[in-house]
Amino acid sequence: MAARTPVIAGNWKMNTDVESGTALAKEISELSGDVSGVDKIVCPPFVSISSVTSAMSGSSIQIGAQNVSANSDGAFTGEISTSMLQGLVSHVIVGHSERRALNGETSDQVAAKAITAAEAGISPILCIGEDLSVRQAGNASSFVAHQLEASLDGYADWDSLIVAYEPVWAIGTGEAATSEQAQEMTAVCREVIRKLAPSAADSVRVLYGGSVNSGNVAELLAQPDIDGALVGGASLKAEEFSKLIAAAGSD
Ligand code: 13P
């Protein structure tokens, strides 16, 4: 099996302003800027991307956006296109459950965003995950398999793809999935990729997200199909986030 470099990505969501985000970036960069053996990504709000980039310059931490439009330009008030992000970010989160739930994003739209991003040379971090009712009904695996397949409809750039399994019930609740649950579901994601692109299945990174912290990260990362974490709350605390990076890195 191909060795997969782990990924620790911080999704700051709608937190921090330019000043506090820049300070947070500086702290993360000082604590973790040189850690190797792990791809380190922070995803600040759009308005802070430039100042966060400056604050982290000289480090190997990469910058991601939290969303992107599937449209190239035009009358889409408030939206941000891939061409606006080119040169500013290496990654973009698409299909986060908050956008699916609060902004009504469909898997078709998520697929269009992922394709547009990849075509622009920006790696999509594509999120999927079931809510509590789906899990309680025993349908988590089939739901996630269908959601991922639909969110990858027409997608072709397998080298740039990162998938993030984020069960909705674990996000921001302090109740992470167990490592067994997370392993089972990331394996489901990998099987979907194997079906769509057999040669890519062992190289695409599949992350877990949902209440990851320094107390549970090691056990999650030890699972064979979990290649890292997409982190919300703990990515807003430099020391805590740096512990996650250290757990995934090689020094
Ligand atoms: P928390 O780590 O705060 O649970 O958030 C996870 C998440 O949604 C990352 O995208």
UniProtKB/TrEMBL annotation:
KW Transport (keyword) present: no
Pfam families on file: TIM
Residues involved in substrate binding: N11, W12, K13, G172, S211, G232, G233
EC numbers: 5.3.1.1
One Gene Ontology cellular component annotation held by this UniProt entry: cytosol
Localization: Cytoplasm
Keywords: Cytoplasm, Gluconeogenesis, Glycolysis, Isomerase
Functional pathway: Carbohydrate degradation; glycolysis; D-glyceraldehyde 3-phosphate from glycerone phosphate: step 1/1; Carbohydrate biosynthesis; gluconeogenesis
Catalysed reaction equations from the record: D-glyceraldehyde 3-phosphate = dihydroxyacetone phosphate
UniProt similarity note: Belongs to the triosephosphate isomerase family.
NCBIfam families tied to this protein: tim
Quaternary structure annotation from Swiss-Prot or TrEMBL: Homodimer.
Protein name per the record: Triosephosphate isomerase
